[in-house]
Amino acid sequence: QVQLVESGGGLAQAGGSLRLSCVGSGTIKDFKVMGWYRQAPGKQRELVAELAAGGVTNYADSVKGRFTISRESTKKYVRYLQMNSLKPEDTAIYYCNLRTQWGDSWGKGTPVTVSS
Question: What is the pLDDT of residue 102?
Fold first, then answer.
């Protein structure tokens, strides 16, 4: 069983920054990728950024150049999301995701609110 714990959400002004953290633990086999999704009110959950085991990153077009995903060098299942130049449309619940060959695990989510 996989546990994912997010932290770092909160309130920011437009143009500001926030940093999210996610720590994964438990029994993890056949790991593929770990990253962040978000869900705004009334919208579907969408990929924000992900970082695979081999180091390949993938970003949503809407966050390219503003958000950066990284990992802890000594801990395989830790991911950070540095969010700069925040916009009101970045307001959402941000969920950590870990994908293995056998399926997805999700954190409980951390809220991010960006005021204009």
Answer: 94
